[in-house]
Amino acid sequence: MSAPEKLGRAGAFSLRRRLAWQFVALSALLVLALFFAVRFAAERASRASQDAMLGAAVISVADGVRAADEGLVFDLPYATFSMLGAMGDERIFYSLSRGDRLVTGYNGLPAPADMPGDLSPVFWSADYRGNRLRLASVARRVLLEDRIEEITVVLGQTRYGQAAIARDTARSAVWIGMTLLLLAGPAALFAARAVIRPVDRLAEAVTRRGPHDLRPVRHPAPHELLPLLAALNGFIARLRAALLMAETFIFEAAHRIRTPLSLVRSEAELALAETSDETTRQRLRRMLRAIGESSRSASQLLDHAMVLYRSDQFEAAPMDFAALIRTTLRGMQPVAELREIEIKRDGLENGCQIEGDERMIEVALRNILDNALKYSQPEGQVTVRLEQEDGMAVIVILDEGRGLVAGDADLKGRFQRGSNVGNVVGSGLGLTIVAEVAAAHGGSFELTPRAEIGTCARLSLPLSSS
Question: Are strands 381-389 and 342-346 parallel, antiparallel or unpaired?
Fold first, then answer.
């Protein structure tokens, strides 16, 4: 995994997990709200039913009050008290007052804020003897001793039954809420997956594209993803324009740099052949050397740019590796003959099928062979051997050159050259190009010293699976 990918993973978060947790958190809040709502509604409903029974009971008690010759008669309706006790283990308190004087019942029952003025009961809550009571009061006027007097009846009841009903109802609501909360987890995952599915489908549609497919993305997407889709298409359009510009620049630069340098070199060689002045000849030799270094550096810089470009736009095609090696050797033969170096071939007669970018592999082969010929002694020998091992096509190039120095850094790095190259012209990019071509094809490149003299270069590329 590359450093940007690691950084992206370290700073990334799961949108699916976030949606699921938000859904669960919302469900928990709704369950909590349901608990309080049910408890409030249960208490209110229980209080309303208790008030209805208490109001009927106090009216029934008031109906038992009547005037007689002996005075005031009060018949206590025990059936009414039984009806009130049906709600649970409740305590009942009552009082009958004639004006401000208590006639019967419990003394000191809390008085209502508003005294009853007609037959409609008045309700209120108060504490009495350590109990929380719900009280109702009703007033009646009776004729006693030739005058109208007001009789007030107060009836109070504890609320234990009401509280128990409210608790049971709230407990039932809690169990229902917990069940819903347990079901909310799978439901949240399902909902989050359904929400993220269009994003996953869009990612799959982009992932299935080939390296050269830079068409705008026309995948169906919900309205919320349209800005992302527009930004992605804008990026693809800019990338397509940038790649086209880079490709045009590489080919244009190759033509405009190599051609003038070749002309200058040809003119300098002609001038060197025609002049006899030793001072002029030395200057022309230095000029030819500088031109050669510039031409080689420019050529390898352009080859490197081409390899980087084609690596990003990599597209493999079936090819005969042995035939490509033979073609490259024919192109390098004049350089070998100029230095009287023999090129020995081994294993190039039979075909060797691989899949890759022919242009990139040709550049890599040319750079390996150029290094082998450049550092070999005149009248030496370079061996080119093609092998097949462990599903890989391996080209081994053995030279009799200067070899490798143990203390040198990795020569496959950019602009890295050995400490024993002396006055040999080079840019330090040749082996870098070979290593990058091998990496782009899923292969490897190794450079090791030989036992006696020279260097062994091994380029391994995967064989074709078909």
Answer: parallel
